[in-house]
Amino acid sequence: MKNSIILLCLILLVSCKETSKNAQEPQSEETTEQKTKSAEPDKKKPLSPHTSTMAMVGDAHIHFDYSSPGVRNRIVFGGLLPYDAVWQAGAHNATWMETNKDLTIDGKVLNAGKYGFFVIPNQEEWTIIFNTNWDQHGKDEYDENNDVLRFKVAPKISEEIKEHLEYKVTKVNNTSGTISLSWEKVIVEFPFEVN
């Protein structure tokens, strides 16, 4: 009889522990989930995400690195960005371009290297600028004396709005290609040759 009572008590004790454990598990999971949510700040998508584009044209590796601002229902060229003023051709830090081979652009040689890429927008024509100071915030330290190549390109106007600034390096053949940037309704494109 005594053994039966002890056995019954043990069964009840084990049963109570299992019930208690099962009852606490969902609560502890919720608490962990709540802690995780409160520990993580709300992750918002950046307004001007950092991105890059690159391509191989023959032996040339061409790489653009930039932050891509959005239009966000604004008038960009002639509004947010005034005409006839230097722009770092992206958001935040200056956009930079790197090539491992010499390129010929607008009949001039751009030596292999890394360059800040700047533009001066205008309704009729844009000035494209390659500058030796590639590592700067915006155009804070831009100095025209550091320009190694400047030329003008007529912009094309698109019917469709390009919400985020986008660069493309497009291979035409093993020795030539095009570089383009498009944002809002404007597309600026120019050819290059690999030396």
Descriptive labels:
globular, four-stranded antiparallel sheet, six-stranded antiparallel sheet, alpha+beta, 195 residues
Supply Rg: 30 Å
Count of DSSP strands: 10
Question: Could you give the distance between the termini?
Answer: 101 Å
Q: Label the structural class.
A: alpha+beta
> Taking all residues together, what is the mean pLDDT?
86
Level of helix content?
Answer: 10-25%
Largest sheet: 6 strands, antiparallel
Low-confidence stretches: 19-40
Enumerate how many helices there are, as a single number: 1
Count of all domains = 2
> Which shape, going by the Cα principal axes?
globular
Oligomer: single chain
Strand adjacency order, main sheet: 1-2-3-6-7-8
Beta-sheet strand percentage?
A: 35-45%
SSE pattern: HEEEEEEEEEE
